[in-house]
Design goal:
Oligomer: single chain
Strand content: 5-15%
Strand order of the largest sheet: 1-2-3-4-5-6-7
Structural class: alpha/beta
Helix content: 25-40%
Distance between the termini: 40 Å
Radius of gyration: 21 Å
Length: 323
Amino acid sequence: MNTLPKSFSPWCLGASLYMPAHRHDLMDCANGEKLQSLRSMIFCTEDAVSHTEVDSSLRHLGLCLQGFRDTPTRFRFIRARNPEILARLLELPDIEKVDGFVLPKFNETNFHAYFDQLRGTAFKVMPTLETPDVFDVGAMKELRQGLLQDDIFARILMLRVGGNDLMNLLGIRRPRNMTLYETPLGLVIAQLVTVFNPYGFSLAAPVFEYLDDAVTLQKEIRLDLAHGLIGKTAIHPTQVPVIEAMYSVDSEDYEMALALNQSSSPAVFRMHDAMCEVATHKEWGQGIIDRQRYYGDRRAFVLLEYTESPCLTDVAQVSDRMG
């Protein structure tokens, strides 16, 4: 069975690409013979597959699984259409060659129908929040309590936000040249972040459905990051490098992150004309370090010195702090 790297971070997944489960070159994509740069992919048996194609898609997926090779740094998931389809997927020979499942339309109603089947397995899951319950903060808090159970929390990689489904419930669609954060969904995403992130959950960013507007896509990714979202689902391979380039780390942010995670750093210091406070910025710093590990720097840099401030602690050079 595939096992996740011991140093696993949600940042490993990058821009996950959805593809229908009946895609003819699915096995080549899974093994990296096609779309070699992908970090993760999601084979969809839900929205990308019509009702009449479900059975044939499952047969095709079952045949492809036989040819899946081990991919330690390439993550493969299946988006189950519903709990009944999950049951059929779990019965497929070689299903252990995937890393886990995306659970669509996830809420209290189907909570046990999904998780009872996964008990005793090693599969990781990504529940998708995309039902009317998402607009009810009380319902989301109740869902959070269920997900915090030890045996369940341990298998959750992240929670996905179903942007288009939520917009559909509101009877609207994201206008062109506009980010999700300029629509009512911006408030919903902010609310989900405050409900789930403080409890150790990561949230993935919704898709951007226009392929001819990289400028707005980049703007939206900046806002995703500002809201603490990790990873953005891609709907086309051309979006993957655009998304992942935006995850590369500014050199000044990386320097501050390293300093914040040094045990010898003072409680508060000034760096790059910003206050750095270990007690309140250390978690942000660890996220920056994780991002840099997978996506690198935006430009080469030379470590700079801390600068003195009359109101912030004076410290030695960064290089001294890092040995």
